[in-house]
Design a protein that fits this description.
The chain has 14 helices and nine strands. It is of the alpha/beta class. It has one domain: Alpha-Beta Barrel (TIM Barrel), CATH 3.20.20.70. It has a six-stranded parallel β-sheet. A three-stranded parallel β-sheet has the order 8-1-9, with helices on one face. Helix 5 runs parallel beside helix 6. The protein is globular. The C terminus is likely disordered. Bound molecules: 5'-deoxyadenosine and iron/sulfur cluster. The site of iron/sulfur cluster has 9 residues, from loops.
């Protein structure tokens, strides 16, 4: 396709917020360097227009690395016998949540492997105690659980739930997550929405066997299912997993997926993910410049942190809170106040088109498609 096809497809994405999987694939796979730059600038403009300059901080507590699943890509998989396992007590989780609030954050993310010790009842008690003590927004990221459990946690005070689709390819999903089906995952994402959670999905980029068509389907689903949050990051091969030695995801591809997701989903909360920062030192900065508006500082107690070994680098101390604040200000952005709910309740974008960054750079006249 000629260059103007790229610009016009991009323009259509920005104007309408909808593209077909084939059009997403085209943007994802064909951008040359100057077109890629334009893609990132467009994502940045859409970000400024719909969610403004705030970068929201979410304190993440990785409270258990025990998991009954056996995902091929993950260091916490149950067959990884080399990993020492830990489980924080409910009191430790509550104390850490209070520390998150003490540091000035208003959202806590409770993340773990799929650990059955945290029954519906135990987890509901933890959620309710945190809510009562702190009033913070509570996000759960604890895997595929039953409808009744998810309902009980919502009633106990959980506000948000992260459950990444991981890949929109049913075949790849089945291969990488033995015994699990993409359809079951997507059904749970629908339950969560029905239960009134703000719902987060996401994917990994560069999984062995994943194609650009698969990635385009990922982005298409993010838009179609209207998720409130989307976390996208590179696959990083874990040496103690069946995928040891596989190539890592490429950062350029991650940034493209992120940018197109921003352009289409408008006001979704998009984190500059830890994996993106680990694989490439400038990854987080580039993510914030290309559509992202959330950072999740790691608040897991130091003694446990090293064992939350999802992928190489993850178990090293993540971005600390002070560092995150300085980083946001160094990028001339502002630290979000409040809980940072998705703004879809606002009918108007934050800025009008004219107030947002000048969009005249989008389509050079020479590249306009003939009418
Ligand atoms: N590389 C990148 N991300 C990974 N995750 C798990 N293993 C890896 C890996 N090897 C991510 C998955 C999961 C989250 C908890 O961590 O997306 O949803
Ligand atoms: Fe468990 Fe999640 Fe890792 Fe799969 S990705 S093994 S469910 S922690």
């Amino acid at each position: 396709m000629a260059n103007w096809d790229f610009y016009n497809t991009l323009q259509k994405g920005e104007d309408k917020g909808v593209l077909s999987p084939a059009e997403i694939f085209f943007l994802l796979s064909s951008a040359k360097p100057e077109e890629e730059e334009l893609l990132f600038r467009t994502a940045d403009r859409v970000r400024a227009r719909y969610v403004g300059e705030d970068v929201h901080l979410r304190g993440i507590i990785e409270f258990s690395n025990i998991c009954i699943q056996n995902c091929l890509y993950c260091g916490l998989r149950r067959d990884n016998i080399h990993l020492p396992r830990y489980r924080m007590t409910p009191d430790e989780i509550l104390e850490t949540a209070e520390r998150v609030q003490g540091e000035g954050m208003q959202t806590v993310v409770l993340q773990s492997g799929e650990d059955p010790w945290f029954t519906g009842k135990r987890m509901a008690e933890i959620v309710s105690a945190i809510k009562q003590q702190t009033g913070m927004a509570i996000t759960l990221s604890i895997g595929e659980r039953s409808y009744d459990e998810m309902k009980a946690w919502r009633e106990a005070g959980a506000d948000r739930y992260l459950l990444k689709q991981e890949t929109a390819s049913p075949v790849l999903f089945r291969h990488l997550r033995p015994g699990r089906e993409l359809s079951q995952r997507l059904a749970r994402l629908r339950w969560l929405k029905d239960l009134g959670y703000e719902v987060g999905s996401g994917n990994m980029v560069g999984l062995p066997g994943q194609t650009d068509e698969d990635l385009a389907d990922d982005v298409f689903l993010f838009k179609e299912n209207d998720y409130d949050m989307v976390g996208t990051g590179p696959f990083i091969a874990h040496p103690q997993s069946p995928l040891a030695g596989a190539a890592n995801g490429r950062i350029e591809k991650v940034l493209r997926v992120l940018a197109i997701t921003r352009i289409l989903t408008r006001d979704t909360n998009l984190p500059a993910t830890t994996a993106t920062g680990i694989l490439f030192s400038e990854g987080r900065r580039k993510a914030l410049l290309g559509g992202a508006n959330v950072i999740m500082p790691d608040m897991t107690p130091e003694k446990y942190k090293q064992y939350y070994d999802l992928y190489p680098g993850r178990s090293q101390p993540g971005m600390k809170l002070k560092e995150a604040r300085g980083f946001i200000l160094s990028m001339e952005r502002t630290v979000g106040q409040g809980t940072g709910r998705r703004r879809s309740c606002f009918i108007q974008p934050v800025l009008s088109v004219d107030e947002a960054t000048d969009s005249s750079d989008l389509v050079p006249p020479d590249f306009r498609a003939p009418e």
